[in-house]
Amino acid sequence: MGEDQPAVTAEPPESPIRTVGTDHITIWGSNARDTIAFYRDLLGMPLVLRQPNLDDPQQSHLFFDTGDGRILTVFVNPDRASNTGRLRTQTGGVHHLAFAIAPKEFEDTMQALEDAGHRYNVFDRGIFFSLYTTDHNGLVIELTTDKYDIPADRKAEVFATTQRIREEAGAEFAQDEHLAAALEELGLDSTPAELPDATSGVGGLG
Questions:
Q1: In whole angstroms, what is the distance from residue 143 CA to residue 101 CA?
Q2: CATH 2.160.10.10 is right for the domain spanning 23-79
Q3: What are the two backbone dihedrals, phi and then psi, of residue 64, each rounded to the nearest 5 degrees?
Q4: CB atoms within 10 A of CB 159
Q5: Which residues lie closer than 8 Å to 195 by C-beta, 6 or more apart?
Q6: From CA 71, how far away is CA 125, in angstroms rounded?
Q7: How far is CA 59 from CA 33, 36, 53, 56, 118, in A?
Q8: What is the pLDDT tens value at each position of the chain, 206 positions in all?
Q9: Which residue intervals of the chain bear CATH 3.10.180.10?
């Protein structure tokens, strides 16, 4: 809590390196069958490439399109069984993966997970809606949807403006009213999407 708090802004920092986006994320998986069943057959991510793991040919490397050309890749091995227990990770580990879904698909997604036997929790996170479940290995998967139609190339600007408004209001965390005010200030559409009722997501996952 005593650490310096840098300014929150959408402007790029003065740094020697500047990333231009997320290319892919790679996770350790179990076997190809269970991995494909979850990410392709349930979440709808096309399997776009499959080849040996170039660092360990005993494993396969599966490439899934998450929906916008950004790729999730998974190392799998037929001898590895899935682990459905909740993963507990240490510093440096992955807490969860988050993928976007359309607001109009939110309730259908809840039903599909229920039909597939996957438990889930839904939270109103203040500036977006989140559904949390786990994959076949216990990795937490967040399926999130924006409350408003925010252009992808303006999202950082919207969030940074929301942060400023939140701080000016003295609020502990960003809420819907701060986001709506930011959208209005930036001249963007602030018509909310139709989403189900959900409890506040404060302290929901830890």
A1: 6
A2: no
A3: -115, 140
A4: 16
A5: 103, 106, 129, 145, 147
A6: 25
A7: 13, 15, 5, 6, 27
A8: 456 778 888 888 888 888 888 899 999 999 999 999 999 999 999 999 999 999 998 999 999 999 999 999 999 999 999 987 777 777 788 889 999 999 999 999 999 999 999 999 999 888 888 999 999 999 999 999 988 989 988 999 999 999 999 999 999 899 999 999 999 999 998 788 888 877 765 555 55
A9: 23-79
Q: How far is CA 58 from CA 26, 39, 118, 136, 196, in A?
A: 17, 22, 30, 21, 45
Three-state secondary structure of the chain: CCCCCCCCCCCCCCCCCCCCCCCEEEEECCCHHHHHHHHHHHCCCCEEEEEEECCEEEEEEEEEECCCCCEEEEEECCCCCCCCCCCCCCCCCCCEEEEECCHHHHHHHHHHHHHCCCCCEEEECCCEEEEEEECCCCCEEEEEEECCCCCHHHHHHHHHHHHHHHHHHCCCCCCHHHHHHHHHHCCCCCCCCCCCCCEECCCCCC
The confidence score (pLDDT) of residue 98 equals: 95
List residues bridging with 50 in a β-sheet. 62
**Cβ proximity of 132 and 95 under 8 Å:** no
